[in-house]
Amino acid sequence: MPPQPAVSHADSVPDPRRWTALIFIAIAQLMVVLDGTVVNIALPWAQQDLDISQANTQWVITSYALAFGGLLLFGGRIADLWGRQRAFVIGLIGFALASALGGAATNQAMLFGSRALQGVFGALLAPAALSLLTVLFTDTKERAKAFGVYGAIAGAGAAVGLLLGGTLTEYLDWRWTFYVNIPFAVVAAIGAIMVIREPESARNHSRLDIPGVVLASAGLVALVYGFTRAEHEGWGEGVTVSMFIASAVLLALFVLVESRTKAPTLPLRVITDRNRGGAYLALGMAIIGMFGLFLFLTYYLQVVRGYSPVRTGFAFLPMVVGMVIGSTQIGARFVTRVAPRNLMVPGLLTAALGMLLLTQMSLDSSYAGLLMPAMVLLGLGMGTSFMPAMSLSTAGVRPTDAGVASAMVNVSQQVGGAIGIAALNTIATSATASYAQENGVLPIDPAAMVEGFTSAIWWAFGILVGAAVVAGLLINSKGPQARPEGEEGLGEAEPVPVMAH
């Protein structure tokens, strides 16, 4: 690897504008997370307006997921090579233009294309945002506060998206679920250009690993598409099975190539460290449970209980509040005092307790007596565990690898989301069909649907308990404060100096 630039005295002074930079990074992250759910609420209206067939409706979600999930590692490495501020601004501008295209869509091809473009630019934007935090905030206490804000947004953004999507669709038009991204992106881009300055010493000056990029992107696309297809076509369907086999082969080749190349897309030291590897795995498992829960609770509230889209969004607010408190008031305050796993394990178990309450859901469950307490527990638990998990996921990496380490956080979330929706939806559908057959009712009978939801939520409960076990076994007690071991720098990297201006 070519020598990294020398650090000047000016680089050693923390950038006085780093907290202002956090505001614009947070705005951008909120936009990306919102987009995961805000469009979902508007789907029926877009389908009717653009005459999209029921079979093709899934591509509004799938085209985004494939582009975003498949290109994340590429986007993370590009941020390391080009510069994170530059990648961040390009990602924002591209995302805004793609959103404008989606809002103006006149046919299904235009809508699907805009969603794919959102995914492409999102894959550049998301790793750049997280890695900017990693290189701008190097003081332990400041880093905890910054990641507390980031973790709260990452956890609560999906629920906020349901509220915003419902409000925009009900009172304006489905197209505003796309247009709403534009002001977010414009404000964040202008702020980033004016305020954010990353240290030159954190830039990676190696060459782009083309074979690694191709193998990683193809392998991740095949994996995400396999899970997405399984949800609609079944797990034993030919193309679904072929996608999983292709993904396994491509990702195995990717690991082989990365272990032999001098400038890998994903240096294996990033994921073989037990703390980071454990954080990626626990985070992915937690997301599996969360995505399934959002899906089932949304259906339960709207279809079974007859809530409007706006009322459904408001119903999720206790979870949002819980996540914000868990991330900023518990996670951020205690992560510098206790080991990360001592926050993650209780946090995940608290979330699991909330999930356990939801297994008792019935046709007429009390919102105040059952749903709201469960959501508060889920929010508190997830917020408390997400914050140290995300901080741990990027702690100890070399500054030049911050982008790709951040991309792995997003890969965990995307793959976890794809698995959660596909696997838990399959379980719910199967349980609903069994109940309907045994009781002589149709699968659309509310009682049959609730039986399906609760069956899947039992699995989500088990997965969250499993995530707590993974965090307890893989993440050691020292966490990100561990010192580097040997030349590979598997522990904490040297602090990254930040330019003053």
Automatic annotation (TrEMBL):
<dbReference type="InterPro" id="IPR036259">
    <property type="entry name" value="MFS_trans_sf"/>
</dbReference>
<feature type="transmembrane region" description="Helical">
    <location>
        <begin position="87"/>
        <end position="105"/>
    </location>
</feature>
<feature type="transmembrane region" description="Helical">
    <location>
        <begin position="456"/>
        <end position="475"/>
    </location>
</feature>
<feature type="transmembrane region" description="Helical">
    <location>
        <begin position="278"/>
        <end position="301"/>
    </location>
</feature>
<dbReference type="GO" id="GO:0022857">
    <property type="term" value="F:transmembrane transporter activity"/>
</dbReference>
<feature type="region of interest" description="Disordered">
    <location>
        <begin position="479"/>
        <end position="501"/>
    </location>
</feature>
<feature type="transmembrane region" description="Helical">
    <location>
        <begin position="57"/>
        <end position="75"/>
    </location>
</feature>
<feature type="transmembrane region" description="Helical">
    <location>
        <begin position="21"/>
        <end position="45"/>
    </location>
</feature>
<keyword id="KW-0046">Antibiotic resistance</keyword>
<keyword id="KW-0472">Membrane</keyword>
<feature type="transmembrane region" description="Helical">
    <location>
        <begin position="415"/>
        <end position="436"/>
    </location>
</feature>
<feature type="transmembrane region" description="Helical">
    <location>
        <begin position="313"/>
        <end position="331"/>
    </location>
</feature>
<feature type="transmembrane region" description="Helical">
    <location>
        <begin position="367"/>
        <end position="389"/>
    </location>
</feature>
<protein>
    <submittedName>
        <fullName>DHA2 family efflux MFS transporter permease subunit</fullName>
    </submittedName>
</protein>
<keyword id="KW-0812">Transmembrane</keyword>
<feature type="transmembrane region" description="Helical">
    <location>
        <begin position="117"/>
        <end position="137"/>
    </location>
</feature>
<dbReference type="InterPro" id="IPR004638">
    <property type="entry name" value="EmrB-like"/>
</dbReference>
<feature type="transmembrane region" description="Helical">
    <location>
        <begin position="343"/>
        <end position="361"/>
    </location>
</feature>
<dbReference type="Pfam" id="PF07690">
    <property type="entry name" value="MFS_1"/>
</dbReference>
<dbReference type="GO" id="GO:0005886">
    <property type="term" value="C:plasma membrane"/>
</dbReference>
<dbReference type="InterPro" id="IPR011701">
    <property type="entry name" value="MFS"/>
</dbReference>
<keyword id="KW-1003">Cell membrane</keyword>
<dbReference type="GO" id="GO:0046677">
    <property type="term" value="P:response to antibiotic"/>
</dbReference>
<feature type="transmembrane region" description="Helical">
    <location>
        <begin position="208"/>
        <end position="227"/>
    </location>
</feature>
<keyword id="KW-1133">Transmembrane helix</keyword>
<feature type="transmembrane region" description="Helical">
    <location>
        <begin position="149"/>
        <end position="172"/>
    </location>
</feature>
<feature type="transmembrane region" description="Helical">
    <location>
        <begin position="178"/>
        <end position="196"/>
    </location>
</feature>
<keyword id="KW-0813">Transport</keyword>
<feature type="domain" description="Major facilitator superfamily (MFS) profile">
    <location>
        <begin position="21"/>
        <end position="483"/>
    </location>
</feature>
<feature type="transmembrane region" description="Helical">
    <location>
        <begin position="239"/>
        <end position="257"/>
    </location>
</feature>
<dbReference type="InterPro" id="IPR020846">
    <property type="entry name" value="MFS_dom"/>
</dbReference>
